Amino acid sequence: MAVETSTPLFEDPTRTAQRDQGFFRSRFWRRFSANKVGVIGLIIVSILVFLSAAAPLVAPISPGKIDPFVGFQPPSATHWFGTDETGRDIWSRTIYGGRISLFVGLMAVLLRSGIALTLGSLSGYMGGIVDLIVQRIVDILLAFPTFIFLLILVSILGPSIANVFIAIGLLSWPSEARLYRSRVLSLRQMDFVLAARSIGASNVRILRRHIMPNLVGFALVAMTYGIGGAILTEAGISFLGLGVPPPTPSWGNLIQAANTLSVLENFWWMWVAPGIMMIACVLGFNFIGDALRDAFDPHRGR
According to the model, what pLDDT value does residue 113 have? Predict the structure, then answer.
């Protein structure tokens, strides 16, 4: 006589999380909120995102408005962050510049993570010739200085917002792909993956239903760190005159004003404000990344 049991032989942690989604969310938030630095980072990023989204409200002066009669004015009640050499308001340009820098950082990371997640997962799960080809491409790209290649690619494509985030995304994925590969190498030996393979599930189904969902937390952490790095990279490219082309403001090309000694010494407000905004943004994303890493850690207590 057959005895039925409701306990499955193999348990997929992804489905377990889906069945107990409400509990997972509360536990996740409890872990995240326990990290005070992560909460501070979330507040910083939220404020900067709000200011960028509400730029027309919080920065009523047009960022491109030129008034030569008020050039090089220090911070005042009218111009909170002062003005530049043509009389443009630094506060408005900093807020609108945040829109561009955040957009470039987000789009670059989405492109980078999409490539890294796809190739890293295929490399780790398929193995064989696929793994060999992907890893040799990774080795080649990691063997050359990324920033130099980035400058060359942007020079070829031409300076524009789209070309900047495309170049950053196309050249920054190799190291992240290796992280995904190492994670998939351990996941493919899990019981729930072996069980799915034993009942005839295709490789595409296993990757889509069992491997990818278990990479979500890992990918979110990598993307959070990556946004800060992409913003710094855009700033470096724009500082050299190959990034976001003026008069469109970004934190990078606003800091470019500090490339002369006279500005550094006499007109500090032109570069201090965007510099502080950029540093705060990158620190905020790094703090969030640290908190997410702890919150997604399965070895961390409840």
Answer: 93
